[in-house]
């Protein structure tokens, strides 16, 4: 297979493992963009999703916001922000956060709504305060779904952060964009492999987080 | 004087031409994905043990970034529209399979038994009972697949200007014309919203039995697909 040869050549070349354009640097940059965007999206989406889900109000508004945000093309938005704001972290972060908020927000809301009302009533009957009901009853039960929302947000960020290279930023997209310009297909395929591996690693991380944080009782019933 | 919709000559297309091209590059893969997903989903409904592994494979496929997918395909299909359309078809397929399986499975047992008792064969039961009842779920999947496909076509610009409206982004950069970038972003967003609206209209058309005013049934579906 042609592609496999390219991949092998890319990864066995020592020059690709060091320096400013080395694999470790680019991978770290990519992870940095991803964590930052995911952090902002979670900081915005999780509280709103938890609250609206807890009270059960605002579902239609959320659906509307999510549909509108999804209609915005991330790539175009990134180029537009770059032209408007210039070189900086904001033109990369804005499209990534816009991309990540709908899955976080809507899944969190849905997860909270799908919690069985019986234990919630029981918790209230036992005299739990609203905050306790939210964090000690609803949140643990809703956690698997909430994590799946964060997971799909993270994966979309990882794949879209690649495009940041087109507007002069770092990350693994550098290899793909530079490689395409330099007609260096080995570099292109190497970069693509790294992004795909990083995306799959993200899946793995979320699987592990789910194993660690979701209570055993919830897992068994789900 | 330059008009709002004038484009650089090297794009060899008008703005409306690009919109038509964008629509084609985005929707052919969605329809292809739907056609392939229907039999796969039916298989998963029939053979229950098959669904978890299929779901696992689709999750992994969906995680592969579009740009990575495009560039690996360049080796096989070149810098062509096909290279853009194949990954989009795969992503659509990945959205459709769980949507259709959930939709078809949501058909109540009694309804199926009633159809059988009325003398429906398996094929007729599938086409006339299961599919129509699953229609809202399928169209919800269709909405997600179409909107994300429309957004992703732009990325095709990076591989030999195959991005339709996305090509305007590059022109805007190299000719220093922010107007072209606005045209691309607004055009793509409007296209996505219009297609979404058409699909909502389609759902209302094919599911005349669903309540319209309160939309109590419609909301969870709209929300769930928005979450993907």
Automatic annotation (TrEMBL), chain A:
Matching CDD domains: TM_PBP2
Keyword tRNA processing included in the entry's annotation: no
Subcellular location: Cell membrane; Membrane
Residue ranges annotated for the ABC transmembrane type-1 domain, each copy included: 27-206
A Pfam cross-reference name: BPD_transp_1
Keyword Cell membrane among record annotations: no
Membrane topology: Multi-pass membrane protein
Transmembrane segments: 31-53, 74-101, 153-176, 188-209
SUPFAM superfamilies listed in its UniProt record: MetI-like
GO cellular component: plasma membrane
Family matches, as InterPro entries: ABC_transp_perm/SBD (IPR051204), MetI-like (IPR000515), MetI-like_sf (IPR035906)
GO terms of biological process kind: glycine betaine transport; transmembrane transport
Family in the record: Belongs to the binding-protein-dependent transport system permease family.
Official protein name in the record: ABC transporter permease
Organism expressing this protein natively: Streptomyces spinoverrucosus
From TrEMBL, chain B:
Domain of life: Bacteria
Domain ABC transmembrane type-1, chain residue ranges per copy: 19-203
InterPro entries given in the database record: ABC_transp_perm/SBD (IPR051204), MetI-like (IPR000515), MetI-like_sf (IPR035906)
Keyword terms: Membrane, Transmembrane, Transmembrane helix, Transport
GO biological process: glycine betaine transport; transmembrane transport
Topology in the lipid bilayer: Multi-pass membrane protein
Location(s), subcellular: Cell membrane; Membrane
Transmembrane feature ranges: 15-38, 50-72, 84-101, 133-160, 180-206
One Gene Ontology cellular component annotation held by this UniProt entry: plasma membrane
Family from the record: Belongs to the binding-protein-dependent transport system permease family.
Name assigned to this protein: ABC transporter permease
The species this protein was found in: Streptomyces spinoverrucosus
Lineage, uppermost ranks: Bacteria, Bacillati, Actinomycetota, Actinomycetes, Kitasatosporales
């Amino acid at each position: 297979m042609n592609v496999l040869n390219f991949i092998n050549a890319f990864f066995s070349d020592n020059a690709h493992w060091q320096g400013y354009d080395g694999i470790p640097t680019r991978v770290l940059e990519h992870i940095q963009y991803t964590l930052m965007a995911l952090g902002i999206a979670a900081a915005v989406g999780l509280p709103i999703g938890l609250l609206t889900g807890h009270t059960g109000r605002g579902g239609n508004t959320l659906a509307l916001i999510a549909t509108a945000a999804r209609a915005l093309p991330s790539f175009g938005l990134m180029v537009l922000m770059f032209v408007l704001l210039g070189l900086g972290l904001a033109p990369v972060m804005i499209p990534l956060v816009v991309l990540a908020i709908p899955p976080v927000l809507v899944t969190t809301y849905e997860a909270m709504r799908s919690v069985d009302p019986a234990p919630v009533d029981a918790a209230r009957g036992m005299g739990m305060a609203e905050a306790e009901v939210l964090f000690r009853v609803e949140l643990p039960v809703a956690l698997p779904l909430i994590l799946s929302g964060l997971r799909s947000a993270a994966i979309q960020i990882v794949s879209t952060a690649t495009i940041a290279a087109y507007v002069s930023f770092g990350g693994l997209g550098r290899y793909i964009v530079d490689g395409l310009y330099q007609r260096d297909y080995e570099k292109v395929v190497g970069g693509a492999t790294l992004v795909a591996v990083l995306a799959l690693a993200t899946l793995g991380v979320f699987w592990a987080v789910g194993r660690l944080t979701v209570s055993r009782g919830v897992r068994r019933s789900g | 004087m330059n008009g709002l919709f004038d484009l650089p000559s090297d794009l060899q297309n008008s703005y409306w031409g690009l919109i038509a091209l964008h629509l084609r590059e985005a929707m052919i893969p969605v329809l292809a994905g739907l056609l392939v997903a229907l039999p796969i989903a039916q298989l998963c409904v029939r053979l229950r043990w098959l669904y978890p592994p299929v779901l696992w494979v689709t999750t992994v496929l969906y995680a592969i970034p579009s740009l990575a997918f495009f560039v690996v395909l360049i080796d096989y299909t070149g810098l062509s529209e096909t290279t853009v359309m194949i990954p989009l078809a795969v992503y659509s397929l990945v959205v459709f399979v769980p949507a259709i399986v959930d939709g078809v499975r949501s058909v109540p047992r009694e309804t199926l038994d009633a159809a059988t008792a009325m003398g429906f064969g398996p094929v007729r039961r599938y086409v006339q009972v299961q599919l129509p009842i699953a229609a809202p779920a399928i169209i919800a999947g269709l909405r997600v697949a179409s909107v994300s496909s429309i957004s992703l076509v732009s990325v095709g610009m990076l591989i030999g200007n195959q991005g339709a409206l996305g090509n305007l982004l590059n022109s805007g950069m190299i000719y220093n014309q922010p107007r072209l970038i606005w045209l691309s972003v607004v055009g793509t967003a409007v296209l996505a919203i219009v297609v979404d609206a058409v699909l909502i209209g389609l759902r209302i058309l094919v599911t005349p039995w669903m309540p319209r005013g309160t939309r109590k049934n419609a909301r969870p579906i709209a929300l769930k697909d928005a979450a993907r």
